[in-house]
């Protein structure tokens, strides 16, 4: 019985987060109401308030869920030491989630563009140490002569910009592709191109 209740909770939370991600991306934080999200999730508004007391709590949960996904993408920095393997895996994972979760990336971009008014305190505690660990790994590759000398944070920013472009500027990507979303083949070519440019820029062959 307990497991059944846990599963119901998990499904409801997942459904609410998916609906919230869609509405926040469509309307923006300020114009979104809990009623909008309840309608999109096809749940009573009381259900939303049962799991998330306020709109702020739900908004933070959406962004935290996305950040958790991006952290999973970066586990290759911990699991592998070969810079080619790490960066190839990381870029592919980031590109994949830019395609599968473009709305979440847009919400994140909007929050950061406005100075992270709701996330700022937690970013200092979560994002900064996480990024510093990735930079330290890149710095160790440079010091060991395994890649060309680069500024670690600049390399990370370049990867983030190139991969998240396909989410944040998805409309532009579609527009420049004769008004059609990228096919699986075209997207794979994009992944390989971004990977190749990044790797060759630091002295590695894809």
From TrEMBL:
<dbReference type="GO" id="GO:0045892">
    <property type="term" value="P:negative regulation of DNA-templated transcription"/>
</dbReference>
<keyword id="KW-0238">DNA-binding</keyword>
<dbReference type="InterPro" id="IPR050109">
    <property type="entry name" value="HTH-type_TetR-like_transc_reg"/>
</dbReference>
<dbReference type="InterPro" id="IPR036271">
    <property type="entry name" value="Tet_transcr_reg_TetR-rel_C_sf"/>
</dbReference>
<dbReference type="Pfam" id="PF08362">
    <property type="entry name" value="TetR_C_3"/>
</dbReference>
<dbReference type="GO" id="GO:0003700">
    <property type="term" value="F:DNA-binding transcription factor activity"/>
</dbReference>
<dbReference type="InterPro" id="IPR009057">
    <property type="entry name" value="Homeodomain-like_sf"/>
</dbReference>
<dbReference type="InterPro" id="IPR013573">
    <property type="entry name" value="Tscrpt_reg_YcdC_C"/>
</dbReference>
<dbReference type="InterPro" id="IPR001647">
    <property type="entry name" value="HTH_TetR"/>
</dbReference>
<feature type="domain" description="HTH tetR-type">
    <location>
        <begin position="10"/>
        <end position="70"/>
    </location>
</feature>
<dbReference type="Pfam" id="PF00440">
    <property type="entry name" value="TetR_N"/>
</dbReference>
<feature type="DNA-binding region" description="H-T-H motif">
    <location>
        <begin position="33"/>
        <end position="52"/>
    </location>
</feature>
<dbReference type="GO" id="GO:0000976">
    <property type="term" value="F:transcription cis-regulatory region binding"/>
</dbReference>
<protein>
    <submittedName>
        <fullName>TetR/AcrR family transcriptional regulator</fullName>
    </submittedName>
</protein>
């Amino acid at each position: 019985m307990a497991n059944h209740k846990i599963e119901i909770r998990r499904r409801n939370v997942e459904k609410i987060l998916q609906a919230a991600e869609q509405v926040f991306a469509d309307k923006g934080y300020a114009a979104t109401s809990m009623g909008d999200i309840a309608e999109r999730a096809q749940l009573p508004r009381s259900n939303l308030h049962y799991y998330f007391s306020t709109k702020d709590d739900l908004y933070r949960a959406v962004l935290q869920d996305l950040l958790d996904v991006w952290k999973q993408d970066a586990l290759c920095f911990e699991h592998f030491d070969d810079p080619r393997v790490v960066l190839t895996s990381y870029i592919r994972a980031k590109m994949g989630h830019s395609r599968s979760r473009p709305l979440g990336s847009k919400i994140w971009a909007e929050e950061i563009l406005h100075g992270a008014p709701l996330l700022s305190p937690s970013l200092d505690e979560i994002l900064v140490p996480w990024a510093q660990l990735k930079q330290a790994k890149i710095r160790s590759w440079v010091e060991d002569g395994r890649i060309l000398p680069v500024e670690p944070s600049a390399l990370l920013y370049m990867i983030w910009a190139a991969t998240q472009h396909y989410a944040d500027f998805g409309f532009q990507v579609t527009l420049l592709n004769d008004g059609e979303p990228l096919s699986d083949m075209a997207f794979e070519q994009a992944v390989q191109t971004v990977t190749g440019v990044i790797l060759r820029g630091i002295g590695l062959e894809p």
